[in-house]
Amino acid sequence: MTSADELVRAGIRPVKRRAEVDLLSLRGVVGVDIGEKITAGRRTGQIGIVVSVRHKIPAERLRRDDLVPAEIDGIVTDVVADDVVLHRALFATGADFPPARGAERHQDVLGGISMGPWRTVLLAPPDVSRVGEYAIVGTLGALATDRDGNVMGLTTFHAACVDDAWSIGDVMVHPSRVDGGSRPEDVVGALCRAALSGSVDAAAVLLSRRRSWRPSIVDIGAVTGSAPAVRGTVVRKRGRTTGLTTGRIASVDATVLLDYRDGLCVRVLRDQLRIESVGGMMGDYGDSGSAVVDPDNRVVGLYVAGNTSGTVVFASPIGKVLDELDVDLVAD
């Protein structure tokens, strides 16, 4: 039976969708969601449209055109300060890399492990602090197959493709070159599919026939399948940087504005899962691509981005990821 809260959210969704283009065009706005209005740190019990901004600015310092209306079609609004950024990691080649909880080497290819492109990218300020060649690292989340039975590793577009210079066949290594990976010994496969759309940020890496694999995730166990995300569900993810963490799905309606830079510009992702940590961080730079799983070890999403403190992360729904890549999840 559908709860009263879910019925309210269902009624708000079309209003949010109509308004979010205008809201995202306002100064500093980085996200639009559905959630409970908080006033002076207290819950109000009112469900409305939540607008995320990089910094809250007093109304008197904003132009009238940049003010978030108090209500939209009778739906209350709330403005919260919370930036949203991609959670891949960039490291200057030759630099000392900070330690990571999930960057160890594995003989088998499985979910929750460090992975990144062998190629580096040339970056300059303001994208990075200094000009140089940078290596990229993300996380291989789970395994999938195509219609011919070829086994692939799932991760995000921005961790595997990186910029507009990507191409099918780009070599991927585990561990990533940031974490000590080398070529040809640590080649895990080659980029074969990618999707960056209005609701999905994902890529698939065709595994090398030399590599053994298991349909499992480090510290979590065997993947049992996939499932639609349900608000309120406690979920886990295992990522390259923060390892195993736990959170709760707070929303399945998040729309986020993300700066992909590197020739890919600013993109909007809609209908993302918003996941709040259950104690400490949920994720950090380098965890992008992690599979988000429910208590039954079913994958519900693919971790894409988060706030700068890592207490809130966003994931593309796994059903849309599989559909756009045209693959099936490998389960035990």
UniProtKB/TrEMBL annotation:
**According to the lineage, what is the superkingdom?**
Bacteria
- Gene3D superfamilies per UniProt: Trypsin-like serine proteases
Q: Which SUPFAM superfamilies match?
A: Trypsin-like serine proteases (SSF50494)
Alphabetical list of InterPro entries matching this protein = Peptidase_S1_PA (IPR009003), Peptidase_S1_PA_chymotrypsin (IPR043504)
Record-given protein name: Trypsin-like peptidase
Q: Please tell me the species this chain comes from.
A: Kutzneria buriramensis
